[in-house]
Each structure stands twice: as structure tokens, then as C-alpha cells.
Design a protein that fits this description.
With 110 residues, this protein is α+β, with helices and mostly antiparallel strands. Helices cover 36% and strands 10% of the residues. The longest helix has 40 residues, at 2-41. Residues 88-110 are annotated as: Disordered.
């Protein structure tokens, strides 16, 4: 019973530790893969703008936006103006608000 008990205990330890060790290797491999993908996605800002209230806005050229790295958008051309302006069928007319008191964001170049 001594040798059989030792063998069973050794097998139980192996079964318990095996997934832990394999999982560690897998997570290291995943972490390296994620880091390489993040390096590829990270774009340098062309210019940074700081507002009066402390906001920092990093400007990236429109063609270098991370959204255009998607495989379906690789050869996409950006349309800067609409190809046509639809005619309005609504009878609603906007009233001009003379007393607009909204908060405006003032951005300044550094």
C-alpha cells in the first residue's frame, strides 16, 4: 500500500500542477502577442493641442487613424465632401437662436 499510495499521490500532484504550468506558458505567449499588436497599432501624434482647461488633444493625420488599419478599410478613400446634397422634404424650419449661451471650447497651440 505504501508504494501504490505514493504513486497515486505523485499522479495527483502531476494532474494538479500540469494545467498551472501550461497556463503560465500560454499567458506569457499571449502577453507577447498582445504587446506586439499594441506596438503596431500605436500611432505617434503629429501635433498636440492644449486647451485652457488643461485638456490635451493629440492630432493624428486622417489617413493614419487606427480605424483604417482594419483589413476591410485598407484601400478605403476618404470622401471629404458629399457627392450630393439631399433635398429636404420636411416642412420644419429651424428658428435661429439669438441668445445661445453654450460653452465654447478654446483650443490653443502650444
Amino acid at each position: 500500500m505504501g508504494m501504490a499510495g505514493f504513486t497515486v499521490a505523485l499522479m495527483m500532484i502531476g494532474v494538479i500542477l500540469s494545467p498551472c504550468l501550461y497556463g503560465k506558458e500560454f499567458s506569457d505567449h499571449q502577453e507577447i502577442k498582445v504587446q506586439s499588436l499594441l506596438k503596431r497599432l500605436n500611432k505617434n501624434a503629429l501635433m498636440s493641442i492644449k486647451s485652457e482647461d488643461g485638456d490635451i488633444i493629440d492630432c493624428v493625420p486622417i489617413n493614419n487613424q487606427p480605424a483604417f488599419d482594419h483589413p476591410l478599410l485598407r484601400n478605403h478613400t476618404i470622401q471629404m465632401r458629399p457627392s450630393f446634397i439631399p433635398e429636404s422634404t420636411s416642412t420644419y424650419t429651424k428658428k435661429k437662436d439669438k441668445g445661445y449661451s453654450g460653452v465654447a471650447q478654446e483650443w490653443k497651440m502650444p
